Amino acid sequence: MSATRDGTLPPLVHPARISQLLAEGAAIRLLDVRTPAEFEAVHIRGAYNVPLDTLAEHREELRRHVREPIVLICRSGQRARQAEQALREIGMQNLHILDGGMNAWEAAELPVERGRQRLSLERQVRIAAGALAAVGAILALLVNPLFALVPAFIGSGLVMAGVTGFCPMALLLAKLPYNRVAACDVNAMVAALKNGEAAPALAATSGGVRAPQGRPAACCQ
């Protein structure tokens, strides 16, 4: 079945439209580029999790094997746009973005799979940036005025992230063990994408965490 009656989707797809297409059994692939921890906490049933910081390693495999429209998903849309750019660089055209990301999907009260709840990457960035800025300001008052450069640097980084969509702090935080909670078999994920099969289930981690029940989802570390 084509994704729409005329076989096309707009660049930005409203959550309600995606939900309708999934209910109709449309041939679309949901590619969630959030961290494994965010994905484990809440995701759309049937989505594949390929974190943004690993996408470059696997994009050629996706280009070779996936012909269906791909809907890119993140928390709000920013990382999905970065993923779209990375995939378009190698010639992929069948790319779309979930308008508003998981924030919009949950706000519309559409169905999700939930697992262990964790802080989203955006909230982690806010906490880390605020903590570093506060520590820098305190040290500037008590130790050396040069520590005032720390909050200035953090502020500049946040401005750059807002303007360009690129946030180095988010990429660093994404690599922390807290944000890497599930193992995956990349070859099995690619085979599932190639053959149009349900994604393989997440493997248990040392902490005993497994993917939520329902249609299993793949994760690339």
Fold and architecture overview:
- With 221 residues, the chain is of the alpha/beta class.
- It folds into two domains: 12-118 and 181-195, Oxidized Rhodanese, domain 1 (3-Layer(aba) Sandwich), CATH 3.40.250.10; 121-174, no CATH class.
- 46% of the residues lie in helices and 9% in strands.
- It contains nine helices and seven strands.
- The chain has helices at 15-23, 36-41, 52-65, 78-88, 101-107, 121-142, 149-164, 168-174, 186-195; strands at 12-13, 29-32, 42-43, 48-49, 70-73, 95-98, 113-114.
- The strands form two sheets. A five-stranded parallel beta sheet has the order 1-6-5-2-4.
- Strand 5, helix 4 (78-88) and strand 6 form a beta-alpha-beta unit.
CATH topology title of the largest domain:
Oxidized Rhodanese, domain 1
Output the number of helix runs.
9
Estimated radius of gyration: 19 Å
**In total, how many beta strands?**
7
Strand content: 5-15%
Strand pairing plus helix content: what structural class?
alpha/beta
Low-confidence sequence ranges: 1-6, 204-221
The CATH homologous superfamily of the largest domain is called: Rhodanese-like domain
Distance between the termini: 31 Å
Number of domains: 2
Q: What overall geometry do the principal axes of the alpha carbons give?
A: elongated
> Order of strands across the widest beta sheet?
1-6-5-2-4
| Major beta sheet summary | 5 strands, parallel
